UniProtKB/TrEMBL annotation:
The lineage of its organism: Bacteria, Pseudomonadati, Pseudomonadota, Gammaproteobacteria, Oceanospirillales. 5-methyltetrahydropteroyltri-L-glutamate binds at R16, E17, L18, K19, K115, R517, C518, W563, E607. This is 5-methyltetrahydropteroyltriglutamate--homocysteine methyltransferase. The active site is at H696. It comes from the Bacteria. L-methionine binds at I433, G434, S435, E486, D601. Residues 5-313 form the Cobalamin-independent methionine synthase MetE N-terminal domain. Its cofactor is Zn(2+). Binds 1 zinc ion per subunit. Catalyzes the transfer of a methyl group from 5-methyltetrahydrofolate to homocysteine resulting in methionine formation. L-homocysteine binds at I433, G434, S435, E486, D601. It catalyses: 5-methyltetrahydropteroyltri-L-glutamate + L-homocysteine = tetrahydropteroyltri-L-glutamate + L-methionine. Keywords: Amino-acid biosynthesis, Metal-binding, Methionine biosynthesis, Methyltransferase, Repeat, Transferase, Zinc. Pathway: Amino-acid biosynthesis; L-methionine biosynthesis via de novo pathway; L-methionine from L-homocysteine (MetE route): step 1/1.
């Protein structure tokens, strides 16, 4: 029978135990041993699940207290110099690298954080010097191997491949060819593999997702060089690729001296048929047949029909797994109580995906699984035939769209004077991205209202009190354009998913975004429509409290798509247009309510790019059009903002400019303004707010730090088109940090204005 295995499991715990343990450790409420105990418990649960699902080897080293890329940097001894300046141990050094601060050690600027390929998971980019030394520290990995074996498990360690790790890295000071470090890096990998062999490890999963990209020739050669060198290792390597097909890298992958190759069958199609023709007699073919990125039940009958001849041909040389790590899906549907029975029957979380793999293995081994297959077939038929999925009026509205629906009427150059006259803002206007601290009282109030313990009138009164407090605090800080603070919102996507038809929201569908930050992506199961206004009354109330402009705050259509579990029975661009039309109605109603500036956030537009550049333009065409459909129903004097964070923009600047937002806010604090280069090389025509306050760190930026960053920005973008703002929303921070940070931000803006006036006078 085929071998069933896992590429990786969720590590947050079924009830987000890791999140709470991390935050307790960081704020001093518990000690290190308490955190490590929670981590051990989650690992043991994950290993037990794998064994119960018929997997002969459990995966180790897929668990991380923060991020697996950061763990590999620590494994290789790649620690930037600024974190080597005191006596904090490696445990807290990792947290300082991730978030700028830990219970011990001096606060420092955190490492750059960005998206893991085309997912909403964030990794910490390694920082490399031209003369980088690698000093192997395998203590974490070896300890987890011992821990798993002590629990009675055979193990399969997982490593990020050397070329992928190097591809993800950044040059710390001045550009150089990172590939010059590959020989030294390979020496460390060979040392590590020798150590693992000495521990009795026979298989190592080595992840090289860069193979699904269109790689430059030098990097393709690096893959070949790396695996020729690693062939000297005494352990067998399962070269693992995911997030797409190999395309023009397929021949390269087939030529490598590895013991096995894992392909993403879900997103990569039938490339494996070519592999079958060239697979050596001693090689394993691993197929990712269960979707590791989405939560719909698999069509097991169809998979069995496809896999049966492969199983007969390869026997134990056929391995079956999910398409990628299950890090990207919730832990267990058994803990979920928010869905009605019909919708629930359509879904599979991480634990259920292990069950699906087990069922496939049992069926291919000739065991009787007829009842389980019949249950699967009933669920699929229910979903395909459900009336709740299809709304003809929504589809007709999409068909009536034209290019005119994506036009503002006047170009930015003619809109800008109208907006300045209406808003009356100073040079270097200050604002925030939208959300403010979600205090315990706010969360408690929302929970009480959700459970029916608080009448709606009392809920509205309490939320209005929070909004009034938020407006007063911003005025006291001296901000120019205010926000209402989003006290009523649980999440920037989930909040809207709760109010749109065609969406369903979970109670326990948590997925890790980074560190202790978890999100609950809503589920798009059918055609999307907006039955009622979603934000208008909250924005109207906030604007009534102040003479300063208050931004309306919405999440854009591409981000609503990307950060949801999306239906797989309709092209993504069609679902995105449905969302855009729902948001268009909201934007128009906000304008009618007197809201002069409306922010439509699109942090996921870069994330949504196909991994292969040759497929970019069709995606960008429909993504930009969807944003414009949402934004372009208003008059020229209404200012449209958008926000993007933690992404590289240089190669899609033409598309960002085509969105034609009046103001774009971006992250620049962690990258030290490097991201702003994209907006100067392209000569971005509209207004920009480069984020100067790193909200993912508890550190409070000083006035001087903000001024220095903005001076750098003014060297690249004219001052009259610059805004001063944080780099993201503030919901995860506390008021004790936010208040002083925003006061410093406003003070920095005043200093910059004085400098500008002085320069004019001179």
């Amino acid at each position: 029978m085929p071998v069933i295995h896992s590429l990786g499991l969720p590590r947050i715990g079924a009830q987000r135990e890791l999140k709470f343990a991390l935050e307790d450790y960081w704020n001093g409420a518990s000690g290190r041993e308490s955190l490590l105990s929670v981590a051990r418990h989650i690992r043991q649960q994950n290993w037990a699940r794998q064994r119960a699902a018929g997997q002969p080897r459990v995966t180790v080293n897929d668990f991380s207290l923060y991020d697996q890329v950061l763990d590999h940097s620590l494994l290789l001894g790649v620690i930037p110099q600024r974190f080597r300046d005191d006596s904090s141990d490696i445990f807290d050094t990792g947290f300082r690298m991730a978030r700028g601060r830990a219970p011990s050690g001096t606060p420092r600027r955190a490492c750059e954080m960005t998206k893991w390929f085309d997912t909403n998971y964030h990794y910490l980019a390694p920082e490399l010097e031209a003369e980088q030394a690698f000093v192997l520290d395998p203590s974490k990995l070896l300890a987890e191997i011992t821990e798993a074996r002590d629990a009675g498990h055979a193990v399969k360690p997982v490593l990020i491949g050397p070329v992928t790790w190097l591809w993800l890295a950044r040059c710390a000071a001045g550009e150089f060819d990172r590939l010059q470090l590959l020989p030294a890096l390979l020496d460390s990998y060979l040392q590590l593999l020798e150590l693992l062999a000495g521990q009795g490890v026979d298989w190592v999963q080595i992840d090289e997702p860069v193979l699904v990209l269109e790689l430059p020739r030098a990097w393709r050669a690096a893959i070949e060089d790396a695996y020729r060198a690693l062939a000297a290792s005494p352990v067998r390597l399962l070269l693992t690729t995911y997030f797409g097909g190999l395309g023009d890298n397929l021949d390269l992958a087939l030529s490598l001296p590895v013991a096995g190759l894992h392909l993403d069958r879900v997103r990569g199609g039938e490339e494996y048929r070519r592999v079958l023709a060239e697979l050596r007699d001693d090689q394993v073919l691993s197929l990712g047949v269960i979707d590791g990125r989405n939560i719909w039940r698999a069509d097991l009958a169809a998979l069995l029909e496809e896999l049966q001849p492969l199983s007969q041909r390869l026997g134990e040389r056929l391995w079956l797994s999910s398409s990628c790590s299950l890090l990207h899906v919730p832990v267990d549907l058994e803990a979920e109580d928010a869905f009605d029975p019909e919708l629930r029957s359509w879904l599979a979380y991480g634990a259920q995906k292990l069950d699906e793999l087990h069922l496939l293995g049992e069926a291919l081994a000739g065991r009787d699984v007829a009842d389980a297959l019949a249950d699967n077939a009933r669920a699929l038929a229910s979903r395909r035939g459900s009336e709740r999925v299809h709304r003809e009026e929504v589809r007709q509205r999409c068909r009536r769209l034209s290019l005119v629906d994506g036009e503002r009427g006047l170009p930015y150059g003619e809109r800008a004077p109208l907006q300045r006259s209406r808003l009356n803002l100073p040079l270097y206007p200050t604002t925030t991205i939208g959300s403010f601290p979600q205090t315990a009282d706010i969360r408690r109030t929302r929970a009480q209202f959700r459970r029916g313990e608080l009448p709606e009138a009392d809920y509205v009164e309490r939320m209005q009190t929070e909004i009034a407090d938020c407006i007063a605090r911003q005025e006291a800080c001296g901000l120019d354009m205010l926000v209402h603070g989003e006290a009523e919102r649980n999440d920037m996507v989930e909040y809207f998913g709760e109010q749109l038809q065609g969406y369903a929201t979970s109670r326990n569908g948590w997925v890790q975004s980074y560190g202790s930050r978890c999100v609950k992506p809503p589920v798009i199961y059918g055609d999307v429509a907006r039955p009622d206004a979603m934000t208008v009354e909250w924005s109207r109330y906030a604007q009534s409290l102040t003479s300063r402009p208050v931004k309306g705050m919405l999440t854009g259509p591409v981000t609503m798509l990307q950060w949801s579990f999306v239906r797989d029975d309709l092209p993504r661009e069609q679902t995105c247009l449905q969302i855009a039309l729902a948001l268009r109605d909201e934007v128009r109603e906000l304008e009618s309510a007197g809201i002069a500036a409306i922010q439509i956030d699109e942090p996921a537009i870069r994330e949504g790019l196909p991994l292969r550049r040759s497929a970019w333009e069709p995606y960008l065409d429909w993504a930009v059009y969807a944003f414009r459909v949402a934004a372009c129903g208003v008059g020229p004097a209404t200012q449209i903002h958008t926000h993007m964070c933690y992404s590289q923009f240089n190669d899609i600047m033409h598309a960002i400019a085509a969105m034609d937002a009046d103001v774009i806010t971006i992250e620049t604090s962690r990258s030290n303004m490097q991201l702003l280069e994209a907006f100067t090389d392209f000569e971005y025509p509209n207004e920009i707010g480069p984020g100067v306050y790193d909200i993912h760190s508890p550190n409070v930026p000083t006035v001087e730090q903000i001024v220095v960053l903005m001076r750098r920005a003014a060297e690249r973008v004219p001052a009259e088109r610059l805004w001063v703002n944080p780099d993201c929303g503030l919901k995860t921070r506390g008021w004790e940090e936010v208040g002083p940070s925003l006061e410093n931000l406003a003070a920095a803006a005043r200093q910059l204005r004085s400098e500008a006036l002085e320069a004019v006078a001179n």
